[in-house]
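Changelog entry

Holo records now carry the ligand SMILES as an explicit input line rather than a separate metadata file. Below, a converted record for flavin mononucleotide, shown in the new format.
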Amino acid sequence: MTVRILGLDCSPRDKSNSGIMLDTAFTRLGETYPGEVETEIVHLRELHLEPCKACNVCGKTKDTGKFIPCVRADEDDAQAVLDKMIAAHGILVATPVYFGLPSDLFSKFIMRTRPLRHQDFKLANKPVGVMAVAGRRSGGAETSIIATWLPFVRNGCLVVGNGDGTCQFGAYGWAGARGHVLTDEWGLVQAYQTSDRVFTLARLLQAGVEASGFVSPMKFSYSQGTRP
Ligand SMILES: Cc1cc2nc3c(=O)[nH]c(=O)nc-3n(C[C@H](O)[C@H](O)[C@H](O)COP(=O)(O)O)c2cc1C
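Structure line, unchanged by the conversion:
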């Protein structure tokens, strides 16, 4: 079984510390589990991404079971990333810390996942881990990580920390200039641990799905707790 792990680099600058954290973690993951894992990193800054226009069309059919794609699906590159997220068994997000939050690039992109939620939670049960890079040692990495988790929880994903050893909330990089994170040994260890945790959970879940044929019963409903 090959586990597909997708990394989303949410920094707006090239040679980003966020991208480096993903890259070093994925390299080690491949060395640890040769032939068992496929990784890919998408650098969101390289894509044409429009914001969600809040037309609400993707939820229009509500409980009828008829899915309507995003009206912007043909306008930009978002759908291609959504397809990669659906195909992945696990997802790692790496973001710079901006004012104690994930980057605006992350926020803009993640709103575009709303159609997947409306289409009976196409990201349901995928493990998701987060790496956040901050210029300051107590600059808001934890709040950024938790804020990054929230849209994934709403998408029915399973958020994970960095697992055994210290069991923190994910990875905290400490870096300023581009490439600086390569000197943050502990940050890179946490980045690997977080990717390992996503890989482990993804593999266990995939094995369970293949052995049992069990299909996630999650169904999107507007009639539960929504004001029309
Ligand atoms: C708009 C902006 C806001 C920032 N806010 C914070 C912050 O709240 N806390 C912090 O420690 N660093 C902050 N930083 C510094 C970045 O998090 C830091 O440079 C990080 O290494 C960038 O990661 P990247 O190379 O992946 O883009 C900010 C940087 C920018 C440009």
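Spot-checked after migration. The pocket of flavin mononucleotide is lined by residues 11, 13, 16-18, 96-100, 133-136, 139-140, 175-176, 178 (CB under 6 Å). The mean pLDDT is 94.
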